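Sanity check

After download, print the first record. It should look like this:
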Amino acid sequence: MVETIIANGTTIPPLMIIQGKQHMENWYSSKLEKGVRVVLSDSGYTNKEISLIYLDHIILHTNAGLDKPLKVLLIDQHGSYIDPKFTIRATVHNIYLYPFPSYLTYVLQPLNVSVF
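Expected structure tokens:
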């Protein structure tokens, strides 16, 4: 489950990553909130293709674009987020990528409000 929280406290619908090669959408689609996106992954984890789907999901729900206000996306340094296709698409939509330093994401988590 990939959740995105906007600085003003609002959220966009989550992106669900389900492990598998095929799925029966009617098993769960009627029970999901509007806008939730479901994608499949062989491993159950994100990859370069899913990261681009996620970025498109953010662009859609935040109305990002070149002629829109700048947006900042805080990310870790997973290989799929530093892929050239990802960075170019983000730049084209006026999204500034701010990667956390390697191995420090758990320390710098901006949404943590308690001691780890």
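If your output differs, re-run the checksum step. Summary of this record's structure: Helices lie at 48-62, 84-92, 105-108.
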